[in-house]
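Data availability (excerpt). The following record was deposited with the supplementary files.
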Amino acid sequence: MIPSPGAAAIDVAAILLDGMDLVVLGLAGAAVPPTRARAVVARVRSKGACLVATEGRWDGADIRIDSHVAGYTGIGQGYGRITGISVDVEVSGAGECAHGPPDSI
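Predicted structure:
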């Protein structure tokens, strides 16, 4: 884990792909330029690895998963315990997951 890669996060992820099968990259709200994305994706494929980018925009990704909390249950009039959380999830893309196409997730 690299705690604060800053502006070099994409470069750090690309280097980590040389020795790791799975790299999770937090983009901190940034958008990856298409030319940089293509170079990193080429590296991912050549290494047979998997790159998961979170909290940002990576156009051209094989699979995109967007989610947000839609509601909570169990809370009374502003107090009590949360007994459940509803999450809306949207999956799109042309890629396939290990367990089938994206719409089967």
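Summary of structural features: The helical segments are 9-16, 34-47.
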